[in-house]
Structure formats: C-alpha cells, structure tokens
Amino acid sequence: MNATRLDRTFAALADPTRRAILARLAAGEAMVNELAKPFAISAPAITRHLNVLERAALIVRERDGQFRRCRLNPQALQAASEWLDFHARFWSESFDRLDEHLKKTIKPRKPHVDRKPKRR
Amino acid sequence: MNATRLDRTFAALADPTRRAILARLAAGEAMVNELAKPFAISAPAITRHLNVLERAALIVRERDGQFRRCRLNPQALQAASEWLDFHARFWSESFDRLDEHLKKTIKPRKPHVDRKPKRR
DNA sequence: TGAACAATTAACATATAGGTTAAATGAATG
DNA sequence: CATTCATTTAACCTATATGTTAATTGTTCA
Fold first, then answer.
1. How far in angstroms lies nucleotide D25's C1' from the CA of residue A62?
2. Cystine design at B11: which of A14, A19, A42, A63 (Cβ 3.0–4.6 Å)?
3. What is the pLDDT of residue A41?
C-alpha cells in the first residue's frame, strides 16, 4: 500500500499493453480512440490502462473537444532509467569483484560454523 | 497470462522490498537468512519475493549446506535497462519535435472534423 | 434539440500478489 | 539419532489488477 513513484513506474511498465501504448505515444500524441485500435480489448479496459499510466505520471491527458489527447511525460522515465542504469553498472562491478575474489581464493568451501550455540 | 521476460523484470522491480533485496545483493552475495533481516515480514514472505526475483532471472540461488546462497544475475537488468534507455532518449526527441511543432504552429485549434458520417 | 460519437464510470467476475501461520524438508551437531 | 536451525511448501486470507457489459457524461452537428 501507499506505492511510491518508482513503484508505480515499474508497475506501469510491467504490462505489455501499456508498453505498446507508450511506444505508440513516443511516435507522437494520439487520441484514446487511436491508442485503442491495435488492441482486442474493450474501451473501458483502455481507459484503465491510461489511468495507470497517468497515475505513474508517464502520460498526460487533456480534453480536446469530443476527444481526449494523450501524450508522454518525457521526464517520467528519468527516475526508473536512473535506478536501472545505476544498478546495471553497479551489478557488473559487483560481479567483477566476485569473479576476482573467486579467482584469488579457489573454492575455499567455508562451512559457516561461525554460529554461537543458543543457551536455554 | 504468459508473461514475457520484460514483464517479469519490471513486475519484480515494482516492489520496494524486492528492490531493497537487490540493492543488498549488489553489495555481495548473501544467505536468505541475512536478506530477511531488515524486513518485518515472515520468512515465507521473503521466500516468495526471492521466487519472484528468480523467475525474473534477476537472482540465482544455490544450496550451500544448511543455507541458500543468493546472488545477482548481472545480465538480467540488461533488457529492462535497454528498454528504458531507448525510450527515455526517444521520448525526449519526441518531445522536442512536439515542442518545435508547437512553436511553428501557434495553437491551430484544429477541431477534428475529418470524420466520415456513417451511412445506414 | 436529438442522434451519434468519444470516453468514462459503475458494477461485477476472476486471477494474481503478497501477507499470514503451521507443517514439512534437509543439513548440522551434540 | 534426536534436536535444532534454515528454508520452503501448504493452506488460507485479503487487496488489487485486469477484464467484461451496461449506463453515464460531454461534445458535435444535421
């Protein structure tokens, strides 16, 4: 409960329909109408997906007469992109360290006997 | 249903507990035991989170005697990172194009009358 | 103004997520 | 070999996600 911005961003990106909608919007703004076209789901289902994207601040909607115009919020990917970039880099460094460590200490097979027995 | 790799990656990253586990693992491999420590949730709940991370290929688990050692799969962030990088870049270009377009055409207020009436 | 269209909300069904406690499994050890 | 510890599985609960159809809202225009 009480999801953060990053939570909502990643959750929004976890659905292929929503990623496809975003990909379409990257080519330019569009009406709900047109966004719905490629998908075999009902209009209310599309509205829900757009709500999710909007709550994640990934898109902005504005009324244009009878229609509703959707466009990307280009800043929204920032946080998620930074999280991933940082970790992608950090992880490989971490892996390199491990790799080096393994090369130095060839299978020490330390059996973790460093536990204190519990008195009772 | 039938989630793709990217679906699973983003879904796994959408939970703060799991991101914290990943952040811990970036500092080096750890036993389930230790991963669980910072969290006020039960051991089975941790196991479930680890299952999610493993299904998303973000971590690898291997038995080490009584324990189970967890470590990152550094390649796993690749796909998600690429998706985000690509779109983050593409989006801002898209935004620039829109911006330029708006500067050229100062509020045309085109009312979208290009619809064909449906005969019946 | 009323029919038609765009989009949303309401009400509902079902699946999945994420948590719990209790029981089971597998390894270490006195 | 019986006990303890680490971890998982089983069974269950509740909230949320994602879809549906029917009804509602707001806009256009003949």
1. 16
2. A14
3. 97
